Amino acid sequence: MMRIALFLLTNLAVMVVFGLVLSLTGIQSSSVQGLMIMALLFGFGGSFVSLLMSKWMALRSVGGEVIEQPRNERERWLVNTVATQARQAGIAMP
Fold it and tell me: Are residues 16 and 56 in the same domain?
């Protein structure tokens, strides 16, 4: 819930700053509303596209792969280590 609130507050803060900049530059108020709506759509849309692409891009940039079932002793050790750390931190296994 906190993530959603921070997401909304961040986007709204950007919209407020964008609106102030438009007002200070003297752009007509009738066109400001349209620009604000477009900025809102692109801002939220860009955030969601970024969120959807982030896991894929992170894995690809480091040549990583998700280990579903360990295939050897090294992968088994890694999965067990991550499971132990997750348990100690009180979070679900990633």
Answer: yes
CA 37 to chain centre: 21
Residue 5 contacts by C-beta under 8 Å, 6 or more apart in sequence?
A: none
CA atoms within 13 A on the CB side of 31: 6
- Residue 74 lies in domain: 65-94
Angle subtended at Cα 3 by Cα 19 and Cα 59, rounded to the nearest 5 degrees: 105
pTM for the structure as a whole: 0.52
- Does residue 24 register a pLDDT over 90? no
Position 63 pLDDT exceeds 80? yes
